[in-house]
Every structure is written in structure tokens, then in C-alpha cells.
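I trust your eye. Have a critical look at both lines of this record:
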Amino acid sequence: MAVPVILDCDPGHDDALAILLAAANEAVDLLGITVVAGNQTLERTTLNARRICSVAGITGVPIAAGRDRPLRGELLVAAEVHGESGLDGPSFGEPTVPLDPRGALELTRDLLRANGKPVTIIATGPLTNLATLLLAYPELSVHIGRIVLMGGSTGRGNMAPLAEFNVLVDPEAADVVFRSGLPITMCGLDVTHQALATEQVCGRIAALGTPLARLCVQLLTFFAGTYRELWGFSAPPLHDPVAVAAVIDPSVIATVRAPVAVELTGTHTRGATVVDLDGRTGAPPNAEVAIGLDVDRFWDLVVAAIAASAVPGGSRRGTP
């Protein structure tokens, strides 16, 4: 039976492929897509979500814009990684799928209340929308089955020495989520850095021979260039689809239970996820922390999703 899912994202190259994976795989019932500022401004990330759904033929899935800044402070974007549009590389026409008139908070509230069973929230951007929901409607927690998020790390960061981007953008929001008491699976850099879009992977996607496959290769080519320039990676890690894959097939990742705290005040460590792997603090575990990835299985899922999305009707999910 398909898992009902709300995907909260900030597209973003890797978010784009996370949308394709969530929409195309029959293990997921994609109820809605909510968008947050992160990789780029809210205006641009919202446009990018509509662009991806348009080119992939994803209809019947409401898309709603959420928070345009973190709970505290100014917005940090990743233009040096994702470009000025947030989705640099391919050329896009005007999107054909509409923006839902409700905001992300209202859409998520309505979807949680309307669904007959607990909903999984997959969060692949800063956790501002999710924290806003938990603070505004704490009674809705009973309708959330679990949270699967891309963010954090057990060690080094990417946008700061110890902080991963999604958490660094809004540490206060991440703190709210990790202290919520809800079941959480954290897919951080430890596991997403194993999901490298190598030349072989890009060749598999290109071999599909569809316009959407060509667009995905263009996205990954641009993404590869920024990762090579900024971090010296030989191939770019496809972070966000790992969280979606973990919902589709939990065996794709290996996890350990551990306490996770978010550093809010450290001069050099703000935004770090402090993962107590050895139980030194005595705090109870509050998350499943992903540490390993079945790389072959992961890429099989992603490539199959791109292939399915190229078939008329193959990626249409969600509710009218």
C-alpha cells in the first residue's frame, strides 16, 4: 500500500530529482508539494517546483509556497551551488501547473486533517515550514506518521565546518523538529555523499533518450561543475532523493538510533547536528540516523523514476 507523503522542498537540482522520484514511484502517494526558501529565494524555489512538475507531467498534486525566511535572522541561499535561478543548466518554458491558493501551512494542515491514515513528511530543504506547522498546530502531530529529512551530519558540514546547509539556514526550526518527539529519520551528509552521480550514472539516464532524461543530465552536469569547483568532488552527490528512497524502500539505507541535538549558539558551530553515536550524553535517542546507502538500489530507483516520468500519465500522482 502506498505511503501518503507530503514533500517539503526548496528546488534545487537534487530536490528536482526528489520530486520526480516521489511522483513516479508507486510506493508513494504524493499528496502535495510544499516549498520553502533555501537553495534560492521562495519566489525562485516555488517557480522551480512548478517547472519540474510541468516538464514531468505531474498533475493533480497541489504545490504551495511556504516560508520565505528562517524563523530567526536573514535567509542564506546557495546560489554558488544551484545558480541564480536555483535550477541553472537547462532552459525551461513557462510552467503549466498552477500554484495552490493556500499557503504551505494551510495546505499541509488540510492534507493532514483529510487523510485517513498518518502521513509521512519528507523534508529536503530547511525545516522552516515543518517547524511552523508544529508550532502553529501542535495537535496535528498525531496525523504525522514520521518525518524523513535530508539534513545534518554526524561530522563535517558542507556550508560551514560542522554544519550542513539545510540545518544551517534555520537551526531554530531544526531544533523544533528534533525536539518534537515524532519519529525522525535523518539522511545527512554521511549517507548522501555516497549517492554520487557518476559518469556511468549520467550515461544510464542519457540512454533513456527522452527529453526529460536529457534535462536531468543537464541538471546533473551543472551540479557536477559547482561541486567540482567548490569541493573538489569528482561527481556530485544527489542528496535529497535519498530521503525519498528511504521511504520507498527502507532497506536502501542503514541507520543507527541516536540522540541528535542542534547547536544554536556556538561561535563556530551554529547549525551543527550533534549526533551522540556513543551515548556519552545519556540523552534518549530521538532519531534514526542514516550512515549507509545501497548505492546500486538507490540509482535503480532514480533511473526508473525518470523513465516512468517520461511516459504519459506515468508520474501523475496525488489528489485533484
Notes: Confidence is low (pLDDT under 50) at residues 312-320. Strands lie at 3-9, 28-35, 63-65, 119-123, 144-150, 184-187, 253-258, 260-262, 273-275, 287-293. The CA atoms of residues 82 and 96 lie 23 Å apart. The chain has one domain: 3-309.
